[in-house]
Structures are given as structure tokens and as C-alpha cells.
Amino acid sequence: MSQKSRLILISLFTLLSLVTFGQKGDGKVKGTVAIQQKGVEAATVSVLQAKDSSLIKIVVTDKTGEYAIENLANGSYLITVSFASYKKTYGPVFEISSSNKNVQAPPILLATQISELRGVTVIAKKPFIEQKLDRTVVNVDAVATNTGISVLEVLEKTPGIMVDKDGNISLKGKQGVMILIDGKPSYLGGQDLANLLKSMPSSQLEQLEIMTNPPAKYDAAGNAGIINLKTKKSKARGFNGSATLGAGFGYYPRSNTSLSLNYRINKWNVFGNYGYNRNKGFRDILLTRKFMDAGTNQLASLFDQTTHSVRQSQFHSLKIGADFYASKNTTIGIVVNGFISPNKSLDRNTTLIEDSMNLLQTKNLANSHTASRWKNGSVNVNLRHQFDSTGTELTADLDYTGYNSFNDQYFDNFFYDKDNNKKQPDEFVQNHLPSNINIYSAKADFTMPINKTTKFEAGVKSSYVETDNNALFQNLVNDQWVTDAGRTNHFIYKENINAAYVNGNKEFSKKWSVQLGLRLENTNAKGSQLTTGQSFDRKYTQLFPTAYVGYNVNDQHQLVLNYGRRIQRPDYENLNPFYNFLDKYTYQVGNPYLRPQFTHNIELAHTYNSVLTTTVNYSATNDIISDVLDQIDSTNTTFITKSNIANQKNIGLSVNFGKPLTKWYRVNIYGNGYYNKYSGIIRKEYFTTAATSYMFNITNQFTFSKGWSAEIGGFYRSKAIQGTMVSNPMKVINFGFGKQLFKNQGSLRVNISDPFNMRAFSGYSKYQNIDLVIRNRQNNRMINISFTYRFGKPIKGIKQRKSGGAADEQSRVGAGGN
């Protein structure tokens, strides 16, 4: 770590150590917030000192409109409630004393709507992180430094999440994360998923839901858990919307714009949004490889490679849909969305091959031109029916999703000796890699409260996926393009998963609660290599139990113990036995014989005073899927493939603290330490590696007068292992500023990303005859500016409807518009 970086981190930690955590007590106030006698979810409730209106604590109401504020010292207090499109409402003054520790506040009714506003003014400000029973919720817009970046960059900054050099996502040191978008599987993985998340702008996101042990109603896929990307949805009645303009300035510029519209009246709700993102960036990769003599095990040659890559991408996204309230209890919705993302890149490669005496033998200059395009379209039809007022309901979804892409690459290779003379003939290669993915799914969920303390859930789901990949490789021979039969391949993969689950939740007392679930999944998969005639056919049925036990020690201490069994199936692209070339000497190839990996997860979480959460976790994974490096020493060639290399043990401890320390300063601190151990067989030889790693994430938010705000945040990650790769420490610091304009209808935000240019990846892989060192740097230093304007006029007298869907955790009816 440089002296400059060390001074910055020390200054940041010193600032934190000087802050006091404010007064504590054992008083508590409970109450409800309602509109027309119906509870209001996500209203912001603040408790203030009665004498000077200084802020003590902020909470958000639950789905029934209830709130509870704990740990109040003796004194006089005042409750205020803020909710979008409604005037701030004040409750009566109440007293906490030694004889009156628990106060039941009278209901606060938001009866007067703001009719004079021309636009929708969002008064409530949610905290950066919210801890819930079975998940962590990250409010994306609560952090100014999330402005103007990609969704993948948002994930990289999020506590507990790590993104490696290839865009693979891990959670608390564990690989195998299932990515959902608005509660639906993306059905992509590996580089395909990374490319999608790199293209999506952060302005589309409202929340991240992180579930390390999801309930049985969710797909069992994802060894490390699930990350649900919840896109923004309008909730106000009448006509309303928002528009965002943004630009980024760094080594290359970038831009992003979006428009969201919503019209809700009578029995109809119609919505739509469009987004456009344009990005240009670079990446420098430095590889050093040592090739050993098989007989003497002495250094035979040294391989130094430098790649400078420039990538340009665009992302057009469109979503339109409607909800129809057929009756008081029945809602029908349809959502159509999709995106188009054209990209092009140019890679310039210089490879120096030296002998054991470091004398240059060959210099290879290679250029790679790539043009690609991703297209996606999906249709969702959904139904929600409430049988009675107790909460008994049935939801159903029919979905179709299609991905279509092509990837055209052109390579030229030139070879020189140490005197820059031609050493061998030039080589020219081109390939055409089209891919089509079609996904069909049907799902139904039933929820029935047995009584006030018991709830039963059950559901079924069936999905069918077909991928078609037809790779054509050609070499230029005598000015004619000739098909390379050794690399050309046509691969078709079909997968059908049928699932059913039951889930029960019971509160035995105010202290004890239990949730038990069981999910059954039947998988039928078939892969066919049409070019070679090879195929595989797999069928298996597995049970995936989940269990949660909650214990409220008292008003300040809560404990949750949970267990779950998970599966991680191979990504489609990793099953595809195609070649993906970086240059003549470096490529990646799929493995159609990959098996799924299975994990047992167990966690114990303790929450203190609703501000400090400590979690201990343990997981054991069999047949873990990981990158394996292999090389052909005689040709100085290295390739990467996925393989079921080993079993993994993971033990971790994480701590999250988030609280307003003053009325103008809020802090969120996250720390995670974990021990990973891999042991197994690679290329018929025993392999084992282990390491203890940690990560640290901090966000400091400052609120000033006249609508000004500021933010300082960053993260540090220690040395860590992921399979056969060891990554070196990584760090970054970001700054953000904001200003509310036009009576809070407009927001101006500035994000200064990595101004000290500290964030870069480096690592190595050394085992058997493999000796690889890699360094990777991208254009992370950016200034992003965005302006958002909210407009529209709400309508009086329309009742607030409950969010539709399969469960409390997600909105399923009108997935893009409510």
C-alpha cells in the first residue's frame, strides 16, 4: 500500500473513532401509520427530542404500517411521519420515564394529500442498509457514489459482495450466486451475466436484496445465495414520472439517460420506462507465465504478455406494461420488456517469449477486433387473487424470455525474432459465434394464514430452457477462408426443471418463531454436440430443506439461526465446448461434462438495538465448480476451463453497524472475515489450498442545510483465494455530493469514483506446472454527474392497494409498474 493510500485510510478511520454513538436507554414506542384506515408500508417515522426537535432515530413502517422505536432514554419525545405525496404529519408529545418504559402511540393518519404540488416529492430517505429476518436490503439511491456507474460496479461496492477480474460474483467469500431481476432468474452466468450487468446503468435499480439462505419458495440455485435486483417502480396514483440525464468524464466519456412514466386511475395502471446508456472504457492486462521443462523441471521459457483493450458499448432498454383490477380481489397484469446492446472492442496484444536465459526468442503482435450484439425480449402475464381479508391469496406467473446474440471476432498475428525480422508466416483467423436462448416458465404460489401466528405457503414451478450455439472458426489460407474443423462446433443444450415447495411459519410466543420449508426439484438436462455426435443426458431429483429459528432475547437483542441446502448448476456457456480466444497463446474452452455442486449453509445472526448485526456462517460444498488453468509447455499455450475440482469449506464472521450518529451524519460500517479451504484432485494430482481473508466497507453520509449532502465511502479487501487463483489486496475510496433543487422535485448528484486510482486487480496461480501472474487495470477514475427531475400530479381518494405477488418479499403483479 502506498504512503498516500495509507494516509487516506488512516484519516478515514480516525474520523470514525472520534464519533460518539449517542445516548441509549431501555424505553420503547410503538404505533401505526395509516391512510384511510389502511396501514402504510415504507413510511418514514422519526423520533425527535421534544425540547429542540433534534433527531434521535429513524425507522420505516412494515407492510402493516406498524413501527417500533427502541432504546430511548428517559425524556420527552415527538413522532413525525413522512410519506411520498403527503404532508409531514406530527404525533403528540410522549414521555419515557422509569415508570413508563413502553409507550403505545396513537395511530397517525395521513389524511391530507398534497394537492398543490406539481410533482411527486419524495420526502422519505431510506438508510443505505436495512437488516431483515432473512435478507439484507441495500437501497441503491441512498448512496451518492452509486450515481453514473454500472450495476456490476454497484455490486462490487456493496458490503459482503466481491467481483473478480472476469466479473464473477461471490458473496462472503463463497462463489455461486444466483442473480434475480425483479424476482425472476436471469438464466445467465459467467461472462454473459457479467456483460449484461456491465451494460445496465445503476439508475435502473431501486434495491438489492441479498439472501444468503433464501426461503423454500425461491429456486434452490445459488450455493452462496441469491441477489435480487429490484428495478425502480412508481407507487403514486395519477400521472407521474421522472427523467434522468447523466454523464461521466474520465479517460473516456460515458452517458446515461432514462425516462419513467406511470398512469394509474380507476381499474387501470399503465407504465413504461426507457433507458439508454453509452460507455467506452479500457482495460490493460499484463500476464507473466513460466513454462518448465518436463524432464528437468527447470525453467524452459518465460512468457510476458501485454494487452490493451478498448471497449465501446450501448444499452437500450424498454419496459411497458399494465395492471387491470378486474375486481376488488383480482388483479391481472402484463409486462413486456427487453434490451438491445451493441458492442465493439479492439485488443492490441504484445507477447514476448524468452528462453531460460531471458533472451528474446519470439515477439508476437496480435490484434483482435470484436463486434457483438445482445438482444433480449420477455413477456410476463401475472394473476393475483385474494380469497378473503385474512391474507389468503393465489398468485400465478407465465413467462417467456429470449436472448439472441452474436459475437464476430477477427484476429491477426505477426511473428518476429529478436532483430524484428519475420520469424514465421502471418496468421489470420475469424470466427462467428451466434447464440440463442429461449426460456419458458410457469409458476403458482398459494398463501394462507391459519391464524394470527401461523402461515402456510405452497407452490409449484416448471421451466424449460433451450440454448443453441453454432460456432464457426475459419483460417485464411491462400487468400481463402477455410473452416477450422477442430474448433468449429454446434452445441444444443436443453434443460427442464420441475419444482414444488411447502413452507410454514409459526410464532410460538413473543420470543420464539420458527419457519420450516422443503423444496423438491427435478432436473432433466441434455447436451448435444451436433458436429461430433457426442451427447450427454442427466436426470436427478433433489430435496432442499430450509429452517429458520428466531428468538427475541429482549427489546435490544434478537437471534436468528437458519439452515439451507443449495445447488449450483453449471452455467450454459461453461457447458458449451467452444473456444474463446484472447490471442494465439491464450484461450478459454467450455466443459460439457460439468456436474452440479451442492452446499449446506448454516448461519447464526445476532441483532443489537436494530443497528448492529453480527453473523457467523459455515458452509460445505461438494464438487465445487472453479476455473482450472492448464498449459501446453511445448507451444507456450495456456487455456482456462471450468471443472469440478474440489470440496470447499467456508467459515466466516461478518459485522454490520448502521446508524445516524447525529442529525447530519450517518455511518454504515461492514466487516467480514472468512476462512476458505479447497481440497481435491486436479489433473489426477491432489490439490489443497487455504487462506484467511477479510474485507472492510464504510459509507459516511452527511446532510447539510438547503438540500446539500455529501458522502465518503470505500472498501478494502485482503488477499483471498478462489479455487486455484489467489487475488492480492484491493482498495478504493469514492466521494459523492448532492443537491435538492426545484422544491425537492429535482436532484443533482456528483460521484467522484476512485480519484486516487487505487483500484486494480492482481493475482497469481501456482500449482503443479502452472506459474501465472496477472495484473489488470481499468478506467475506474471517473467523475459522474446526473440530474433527475420528478414530475406529475397525484390523484386524491384512490385507495392504496397491497403489492401483488407470490410473497411479502417481492412484488410480482405488474412487476415493472407498481
Provide keyphrases for this structure:
about 800 residues, about 65% strand, globular, Immunoglobulin-like, single chain, 2 domains, Maltoporin, Chain A, disordered N terminus, mainly beta, 4 helices, six-stranded mixed β-sheet, 30-stranded mixed β-sheet
Describe the structure.
The chain is built from four helices and 49 strands. It folds into two domains: 3-109, Immunoglobulins (Immunoglobulin-like), CATH 2.60.40; 129-793, TonB-dependent receptor, beta-barrel domain (Maltoporin, Chain A, Beta Barrel). Helix content is 4%, strand content 65%. It starts with a helix and ends in a 25-residue tail after the last strand. The radius of gyration is 28 Å and the shape is globular.
Oligomer: single chain
CATH fold annotation of the largest domain: Maltoporin, Chain A
Number of extended strands: 49
Major β-sheet profile: 30 strands, mixed
- What's the CATH first level of the largest domain? Mainly Beta
Please work out how many helical segments DSSP would assign.
4
Residue windows where pLDDT falls under 50 for at least 5 positions: 1-23, 113-124, 796-818
Q: How much helical structure, as a percent, in the residues?
A: under 10%
